[in-house]
């Protein structure tokens, strides 16, 4: 197994570890860190750091794979799967922690399923749908929003600026728009006359 695929697998294996720190409340790691009016439990800080590290490996594995000519079918399968698992796991956990509305998460995850389905149909037709700029913007805004929510809006909480809330709204809007963009630009893939 090559280096990019190992990095992608490491990202997948970080997901359950992140969930343990987010969702299990063991007394020895649930102490609060407090800076003025801001507070965050140690376990949530560790979960946020794990999420940020895992999310940052996404660009690294792809860059190494392309630069060293190590692109594999396994990597093409694992990389988007790892991204979707990481984002979905974090968002569902944030719903459980009452930090984000469930309907927002349903919209974001539904878009992921829809675009993945479109890509699968395109593959069956012999074509590949490349990531668009809107798709990349979607990923970036989702990662920033989730990170801000995991960190309890740090450091913006000190000045009373709802950065995390704004980012999750922006991520949702861009997620919906990017999904529509994929379907509009690739409507030829959905040839209903063959169905």
UniProtKB/TrEMBL annotation:
Catalyzed reaction equations: a CDP-1,2-diacyl-sn-glycerol + sn-glycerol 3-phosphate = a 1,2-diacyl-sn-glycero-3-phospho-(1'-sn-glycero-3'-phosphate) + CMP + H(+)
Broad class of the protein's primary localization: membrane
Annotated keywords: Lipid biosynthesis, Lipid metabolism, Membrane, Phospholipid biosynthesis, Phospholipid metabolism, Transferase, Transmembrane, Transmembrane helix
InterPro entries the UniProt entry points to: CDP-alcohol_PTase-I (IPR050324), CDP-OH_P_trans (IPR000462), CDP-OH_PTrfase_TM_dom (IPR043130), CDP_ALCOHOL_P_TRANSF_CS (IPR048254), Phosphatidylglycerol_P_synth (IPR004570)
Pathway: Phospholipid metabolism; phosphatidylglycerol biosynthesis; phosphatidylglycerol from CDP-diacylglycerol: step 1/2; Lipid metabolism
Location in or out of the cell: Membrane
Bilayer topology term: Multi-pass membrane protein
Pfam families found in the cross-reference section: CDP-OH_P_transf (PF01066)
Transmembrane portions of the chain: 7-24, 44-64, 85-109, 166-184
Gene3D superfamilies to which the protein is assigned, alphabetical: 1.20.120.1760
Enzyme class: transferase
EC number: 2.7.8.5
Family: Belongs to the CDP-alcohol phosphatidyltransferase class-I family.
Protein's job: This protein catalyzes the committed step to the synthesis of the acidic phospholipids.
Protein name per UniProt: CDP-diacylglycerol--glycerol-3-phosphate 3-phosphatidyltransferase
Native organism: Paenibacillus motobuensis
Taxonomic lineage of the native organism: Bacteria, Bacillati, Bacillota, Bacilli, Bacillales
């Amino acid at each position: 197994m090559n280096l990019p695929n190992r990095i992608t697998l490491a990202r997948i294996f970080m997901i359950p570890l992140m969930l343990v720190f987010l969702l299990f409340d063991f007394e020895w790691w649930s102490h609060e860190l407090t800076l003025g009016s801001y507070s965050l439990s140690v376990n949530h800080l560790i979960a946020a750091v794990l999420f940020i590290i895992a999310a940052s490996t996404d660009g690294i594995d792809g860059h190494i794979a392309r630069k060293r000519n190590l692109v594999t079918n396994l990597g093409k399968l694992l990389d988007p799967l790892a991204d979707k698992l990481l984002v979905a796991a974090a968002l569902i956990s944030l719903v459980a922690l009452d930090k984000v509305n469930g309907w927002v998460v349903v919209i974001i995850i539904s878009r992921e399923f829809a675009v993945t389905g479109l890509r699968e149909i395109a593959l069956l037709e012999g074509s590949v749908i490349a990531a668009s700029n809107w798709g990349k913007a979607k990923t970036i805004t989702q990662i920033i929003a989730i990170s801000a929510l995991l960190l309890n809006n740090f450091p913006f909480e000190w000045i009373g600026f709802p950065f995390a809330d704004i980012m999750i709204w922006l991520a949702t809007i861009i997620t919906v728009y990017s999904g529509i963009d994929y379907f509009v630009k690739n409507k030829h893939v959905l040839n209903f006359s063959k169905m």
